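FORM 7B: Structural annotation worksheet

SECTION A. Query
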Amino acid sequence: MKVIVTGAAGFLGSRIADALLSESSPIKVTDLILTDVQAPQKRQDARVVTLALDLTSSSAASHLIGSGCDVFFHLAAVVSGLSEADFDFGMKANLDATRSLLEALRKKSPTAIFIFTSSVGVFGGNLPPVIDDLTAVMPPTSYGTAKAMCELLVNDYGRRGFVDGRSVRLPTVSVRPGAPNTAVTSFASGIIREPLNGIASICPVPPEQEMWLSSPNTVVRNIIHAATLPNTVFGPWRTVNLPGITVSVGAMVEALKTVAGDKVASLVSYKRDERLARINAIVPSKFDNTHALKLGFFVDSNYEDVIRMYIRDDLKKSK
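SECTION B. Predicted structure
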């Protein structure tokens, strides 16, 4: 299969590429095109081509897809903080680029499976206590608005047979390795990652703030799994809330204390940021996993194990 991954220089995109190239991959890859604004890391694998490509340029989508593809993972996006700070750029990168890709696939490869990575950031407003796949969206940010519009586009292109589109809404991913980014949920990794690296971390939301979380490993497995499912299982609405676990910020710090000890956990302090606290308070933290689990998606067992995964897979690499 010919597979394309956008945002492949990013954390999740890079891990998806590695997973697709592994012997255990459920997708048998013959050609893998990895692209981002900056060329993704080269791999010693004859199946891989890396491209530096700005998806907001008019010819990018047509150039990337070329003669077609079998599976397309679209992870490229401008994160929530930057989208809120620069409306025009955020819409161009998150909405317009996605539509260009869908149009290029419609013309060149209408049978391709198109996996769009959305976000629980599409939800806001007066919500029910527990969210499911059919809960109406009311995004509290421009980032969430672009994601919601893309979900509708993917659904309509799929309905009309222009492409086999599927959208997966990602929980907040924690713990992400590397440097903090401008996402409004960046602290959900920072309050674990920084202390484990001996660095103090300031949490901008109160300890009672609950979050819907998934580990990087589980999110990567779930994004790939979405491409392996039969088209018929999605029905008229092709968007799935990926499974996660509800954890309060205070419980995250307690889990850090359990795994790494009091000294490490003491590096976390609280200083409220009104803007970040307001946005995060609107985003829902309780979801019904039933449908996704029936479709074979995966879920983490508890947050302590998520921290242990970070220590095992990423902490030693960063030191």
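SECTION C. Observations
The first strand starts at residue 2 and ends at 6. The chain is about 40% helix and 15% strand.

SECTION D. Sign-off
Analyst initials: ____
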